[in-house]
């Protein structure tokens, strides 16, 4: 049997990525963590292009977690600078490729310059139809749920929501970007098997793919492997295999 190939009719709509391993990649080469992040930026460039080419509709990148604010100041500054640099240098290319930029997270903590750059990117790419590129920035999954609950409670006080009738769909409408579909595939590079407070609500039924490849080494071929692996999974959403098969045949 030859290598399994990628089926264009079963590309996940939404791929979310925990880009881990920049520090270890650098350490293995006797280089600084910051250099690892700089190489990580090359992987971001490559994967944004590749995901669009594969036909992914939404690509969410975990660029900076709320916990990352506690890293050494120089590293935090460099990560913000890299994001700013990416948006500055790649915006034309992103627009040419008809990609829409979005952001989720507690942006009030993000330096003003970076926020402005993001606003510009969001504004200028609005309506891009090829792919949505979502940066999770100053993001925490629990914080997102708490922020949603806060907005919901305010609306309940105003009588706009009836607590007795609250359901998952109503709650999800209060998340940072309710227009996005849930991730079908969650990729984590750098070998660690955990979700690290990423999209906790949205990944309830996501397929999880963990690879030992460190983020700075992750390229189109690695993304293809992840997609092929995803295509071998049976997504049951709590049903039995038989129910899934029957549904597919009748639907
Ligand atoms: C985790 O690696 C990665 C990050 C905290 C940040 C990801 C940032 C980039 C890929 C740089 C550019 C980003 C954008 C969005 C333009 P780690 O440092 O935790 O690695 P380690 O687990 O090996 O220490």
Please outline the helices and strands.
Blueprint: E1 14-18, H1 22-28, H2 33-54, E2 58-65, H3 73-96, E3 99-104, H4 112-125, E4 131-139, H5 141-157, H6 168-172, E5 185-188, E6 207-210, H7 220-231, H8 241-250
Parallel strand pairs: 1-2, 1-5, 2-4, 3-4, 5-6
Bound molecules: farnesyl diphosphate.
Farnesyl diphosphate binds next to helix 1, helix 2, strand 2 and helix 3.
Please supply descriptive tags for the structure shown above.
251 residues; Undecaprenyl pyrophosphate synthetase; 8 helices; globular
Which runs of at least 5 residues are low in confidence (pLDDT < 50)? none
Number of helices: 8
Strand content is 5-15%
Number of domains: 1
CATH homologous superfamily? Decaprenyl diphosphate synthase-like
Give the SSE order as H and E letters: EHHEHEHEHHEEHH
CATH fold field value:
Undecaprenyl pyrophosphate synthetase
Going by helix content, strand content and strand pairing, the class is alpha/beta
What's the arrangement of strands in the largest beta sheet?
Answer: 3-4-2-1-5-6
- Compute the average pLDDT: 96
CATH architecture group name: 3-Layer(aba) Sandwich
């Amino acid at each position: 049997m030859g290598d399994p190939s990628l089926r264009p009719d079963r590309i996940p709509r939404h791929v979310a990525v925990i880009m881990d391993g920049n520090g270890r990649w650098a350490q293995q080469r006797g280089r600084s963590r910051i250099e690892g992040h700089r190489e990580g930026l090359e992987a971001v460039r490559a994967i944004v292009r590749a995901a669009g080419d594969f036909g992914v509709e939404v690509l969410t990148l975990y660029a900076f977690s709320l916990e990352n604010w506690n890293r050494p100041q120089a590293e935090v500054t460099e990560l913000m600078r890299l994001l700013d640099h990416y948006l500055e240098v790649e915006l034309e290319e992103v627009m040419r490729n008809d990609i829409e930029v979005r952001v989720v997270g507690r942006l009030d903590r993000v330096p003003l310059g970076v926020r402005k750059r993001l606003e510009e990117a969001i504004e200028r790419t609005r309506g891009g139809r090829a792919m949505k590129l979502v940066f999770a920035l100053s993001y925490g999954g629990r914080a997102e749920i708490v922020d949603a609950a806060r907005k919901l409670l305010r609306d309940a006080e105003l009588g706009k929501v009836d607590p007795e009738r609250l359901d998952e769909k109503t709650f999800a409408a209060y998340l940072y970007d309710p227009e996005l579909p849930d991730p079908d595939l969650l990729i984590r590079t750098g070998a660690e098997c955990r979700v690290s407070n990423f999209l906790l609500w949205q990944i309830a039924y996501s397929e999880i793919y963990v690879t030992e490849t460190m983020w700075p080494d992750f390229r189109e071929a690695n993304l293809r492997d992840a997609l092929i692996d995803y295509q071998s999974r049976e997504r049951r959403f709590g049903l039995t295999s038989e129910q899934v098969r029957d549904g597919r045949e009748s639907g």
